[in-house]
Structures are given as C-alpha cells and as structure tokens.
Amino acid sequence: MDSREHILIEDSQEEITRVDDLWFPDANLVLQAGNRLFRVFGGILAARSTVFRDMLSIPQPNSQPLIDGCPAVVLHDAPADVEYLLKAIFDSGFFERPPAPATFNVVAGVLRLSTKYDVEYLRTRALLHLSAALPRSLAEYDLRGHVTPFHTETNVTFPLLLLVHELALAWALPTALYFAALSTVKRIMDGFSSNGHNIELPRSLQRTLLIGRNTLVVAQTYHILRCFRTLPCDGCLRRESCQVTSRVLYEAVAGLQLLSPLNLFSPEAWNSITSRLCAPCSLAMGQEYQTARQKVWDELPGTFELGSWEELGPAPV
C-alpha cells in the first residue's frame, strides 16, 4: 500500500466504511465524507457538476492521498447527504421527479449538495419535490389532501423549515412556516428529539413562529369559525333547527383547541356537519368557509412578516 493511503484515513477518528453501492471497482476517484468512502467515476461527476469539473481539472501534486491507487478527495459535507447525491447521479432510478416518492432526508440532502456542487438537473428534481410538499396556492394545497408535508414521515415540519431557511428559498417560506406554526408553543420553544437528534429552532424562527401562530389563532376564531355564526342563512328552511345546530357545532369545534385554520375539518367531518343543516344553510356555510380559508391563505406571508406572495416571487420550477 502506498504510504499516501494512510494520510486520508488516519485523519478520521471513526471506523472508515466503504459504501458498497457506490464502490465501483473500475472507477478512478475515491471520495471521503466523514467515515464513508465512495469509489466513483470522475468523468461522470465532471459531466454532471461544474464544481467537480473545475475541481478535477486542477493538476494534483504527487503528495495527494491515494486509496486503492485512486486519487482521494475529502468532502466536508454530511456523509448521508453525499451518499444521496452520488446515488442520484449514479443510479438513475434512485431519485426521480414527482410523483415518484422520495423521503424528506433524500430530498434535503440532494437539494443541499446539488445547489453547492451545481448539479442543475438534480436541483430541479429536488425543488419539484419541495414544491409538492409546500404549495403556493390554496388550490394546490387542497390537492394534497388532508396531510402534512412528506405525510408518510413524522417530525419533518421543523427540519423542512430549517432547510428552506438555510437555503433562503423565500417562495417556500410561508407554507413551511405555516406547518411549523401549528405545533404547540412548548414544541416551538423547546424543540424535540427525533431518531437520537435534537431538533431546535433558532431564536429568529421561534419569534416568527410565535407571532404567526398568534395571528393564526385569531384568524381561525374570527374568520374560519365565522361560517357557523352566519347561520341560519336568509333562505333557511328550518330556521330554529339550523340555529341550534350551528351553535352546538360551533361550541364543540371551538372547544377542541385545535389549531389548523386551513384544514380544520376533514372531508368526513365536514360532510357530517353539513348533513345536519338544511340545504341552503349547508351551501351558505360551505361558501363562507371557503372564503375564509382563501383569506387566511392570501394573508399567510403577512402573517409571518414576509410581505405578499407576489413579493416573494414564484417557485423556480
């Protein structure tokens, strides 16, 4: 073994592991990220990434570390993120456009490093996944159904917000902040533990969330729940019955202390509520509810002191 092979490995205090899926015996470049080693094709990396192209075009000194006879380069990125990026490059089926599924960690890792290393086609795919999770219109929001972002996973709203904040994706901030603001005040202030990692928000985001959360509470009380207080409607067919029903339903829903102004009712719950009213009141209540939801959505950027949707600009994909 060339003495230069020890230089790279001995710098790490962890046991070095070769990632089998990304260790190609005939490849010509070894990358190290943390305790993980990847043997890949430098030419393919250079073709996909302008940053790697420039990096690999620089003549290397004779003292450059070698592993298995290949030049070795240390990447100062999270090992998991590097693995996701390399899998996306070397395995065409690993990270596809929506509606193909992708976990939050994969999307986040690919987005971070495709941005850093200028892998444009993968950045576009990652942004498409992010756009699907963080819609920019109420119609797009409703198409997602009664679910949270990356709905098959739990505890992603704070990491998602941190990602959007880290990469300064202004167009995605209102929706990311909205989902995070639905958390309890204690969770916003104290954070939580997930998979052995403590997830905490910086004070600037805590402040923004608490201010926005208070505004959402007011909006839910005075706009969303207003749909009950407008009954019975002018064309009501069962005035006394609808009046009593609307009051009982209002008190029941208000007493739940659930913050979710855009999704306060599941489709099943909404059908159950409106079935107790006459047809004109059911229609009037539905129209009032949709008007209130649209108002909350339109004001979402302002809720978090971000201006307007127009000022934030469109999604880049």
UniProtKB/TrEMBL annotation:
Protein name: BTB domain-containing protein
